[in-house]
Specification:
heterodimer, A: about 270 residues, mainly alpha, MetI-like fold, 2 domains, about 0% strand, flat, B: about 250 residues, alpha/beta, Rossmann fold, four-stranded antiparallel beta sheet, 8 helices, about 35% helix
């Protein structure tokens, strides 16, 4: 690509500077409200105290962060494999699709927060948390991949038929590559959702008191009125979500930049 | 190859073709000319075996074709129909790959096919980096890479600008003369059909059948001078008249 025009560079700088400035302003207001009203930490801790808690409690918090991230990634990986796998099976067999797709939808529209306590009864806690992460994350992968697999260019399908392609060849060389942009859109959504699923399950399990993840830490700190630690854990969850989002957006860009309109920069 | 009494009725009840008789001789350049909706694309798809006739039969030489896949056919669609996710060379390679040709055998054939359409330098480009005319050339290279006896072309240049279309018309004639293929070319352009063909088959719409056949008895190679000749103009008038008669006077 050509060197960015001054206007493009300016705009990119603004897109970075403005949200950072907004965040700084919000933190400053937060700090002012706490200081002026002399709020005690168990009502609302100031940003400085939260930052100090983040550092002081890093030992506990980092263990919890890792525990939550592991669950998230496991749930995410299962969601990607399961979502794409189911989409492929549905695409190959209409009967299987008609039989099972409605139940995938039901699983999706039933709030996971309501399913989590039941799962905790029947599964070991780690399994239940993982199942929750999977349930919320697999559907976008399934739905988007299905859409992609069904949107193959008709002329290209004809071309494959003309040259006597086997079903495997059509799937491997035609359907999966042309579904890739949709698949990646689903995967990006799944990344964020698997974190949500893990957190929901941890919160639900929190009352049972056997967890160690960040959301469990938030619930536990709540009982102990350790509000600064609640904030610190929340910030870590938020950062984890942001990192997951950007990592997947980067992956998507890397895979599509040579050919897909969504990732190709146009020269103007 | 000949079609006898071929009919095609779609599930929707649309009668695309009815009683179509058509003979194509080896090495011939035949155009199917008609208004849109006259079933000329359907006829091409039947010949390619992409769709089954509801009546009549298609014979090759003297044997009734059970599956025309046995015959080497190249098909060029109205759009370039390239896979956007892979390179020009991989696109051209597709028919060979699907046919189980090994990569080392395929490489020189892909290179030769690209060379023939003047795109040897673009083998590693992605389709989106090419112009409309270049994409169509890639599509033609892909159709030629299996060295088919029969090339079926479905309004391949309809979406291109006139300058590019004239250029590709000339290049197609050169290729056809050099490779001695049989070409069945679908078009709705009188000028294009006269310029390219030995024989023009004018079709009637709804249901599609042959209205009249015209022989363009001008020698090849035809070049730009042919486009401006009185002979060309006369053939175009004749063909236009046949076309408007086929559509009942209102083309």
């Amino acid at each position: 690509m050509s060197a960015p025009e001054p206007r493009g560079r300016e705009e990119r700088a603004l897109r970075f500077v403005l949200p950072v400035a907004t965040l700084a302003l919000a933190v400053a207001i937060w700090h002012a409200v706490v200081t002026i009203n002399a709020l005690p930490p168990y009502v609302l801790p100031g940003p400085a105290l939260v930052a100090r808690t983040l550092i002081d409690d890093w030992g506990i918090l980092s263990d919890s962060l890792i525990a939550t991230l592991i669950t998230t990634f496991e749930g995410f990986a299962l969601a990607v494999v399961g979502g794409i796998g189911l989409a492929v099976v549905f695409n190959l067999s209409r009967l299987v699709e008609y039989s099972f797709y409605p139940f995938a939808v039901i699983l999706q529209v039933t709030p996971v927060l309501a399913i989590a306590p039941l799962l905790l009864i029947y599964l070991p806690q780690q399994g239940a948390v993982l199942a929750c992460a999977w349930i919320v994350a697999f559907f976008p992968v399934l739905a988007n991949t299905t859409l992609g697999l069904n949107s193959v260019d008709h002329n290209l399908s004809d071309l494959y038929r003309l040259y006597g392609a086997s079903r495997g060849q059509v799937l491997l060389y035609l359907k999966l590559p042309s579904a890739l942009p949709n698949m990646l859109a689903g995967i990006r959504i799944a990344g964020g959702l698997s974190l949500v699923g893990a957190v929901v399950a941890e919160i639900a399990a929190g009352s049972a008191g056997a967890g160690s993840g960040l959301a469990y830490r938030i619930a536990e700190s709540g009982y102990r009125l350790n509000i600064p630690r609640m904030f610190a854990a929340l910030i870590l969850l938020s950062v984890a979500g942001i990192v997951i989002y950007f990592a997947l957006a980067g992956l998507s860009h890397l895979l599509l930049r040579r050919w897909h309109e969504s990732a190709v920069q146009r020269e103007r | 190859m000949s079609l006898r009494g071929v009919a095609k009725t779609f599930a929707s009840g649309t009668q695309a073709l009815d009683g179509l008789d058509l003979d194509v001789r080896p090495g011939e350049f035949v155009s199917l000319l008609g208004p849109s909706g006259c079933g000329k694309s359907t006829a091409l798809r039947l010949i390619a075996g992409l769709s089954e006739p509801t009546a009549g039969n298609i014979t090759w030489g003297d044997s009734v074709a059970a599956a025309s896949a046995a015959h080497e056919i190249g098909f060029v669609f109205q759009e370039p129909t390239l896979m956007p996710w892979t390179t020009v060379a991989r696109n051209v390679d597709l028919p060979l790959r699907l046919g189980g040709t090994s990569a080392s055998d395929a490489a020189p054939r892909v290179a030769a096919a690209l060379d023939r359409v003047g795109l040897a330098a673009f083998r590693d480009a992605f389709p989106r980096e090419l112009s409309g005319g270049m994409k169509m050339r890639v599509s033609i290279a892909r159709a030629l890479v299996t060295d088919p006896d029969l090339l079926l072309m479905d309004e391949p240049f309809a979406a291109l600008d006139e300058i590019t279309r004239f250029k590709l018309n000339n290049d197609l004639l050169d290729l056809w003369r050099a490779l001695r293929k049989t070409v069945v070319f679908v078009t709705h352009s009188v000028f294009e059909s006269v310029y390219l063909s030995h024989r023009i088959v004018v079709m009637t719409p709804r249901p599609g059948r042959v209205f009249r056949e015209l022989v363009v008895d001008a020698p090849y190679p035809r070049q730009e001078s042919f486009r401006t000749s009185a002979e060309y103009a006369a053939y175009c008038r004749l063909t236009s008249e046949a076309l408007s008669a086929a559509t009942g006077g209102n083309p």
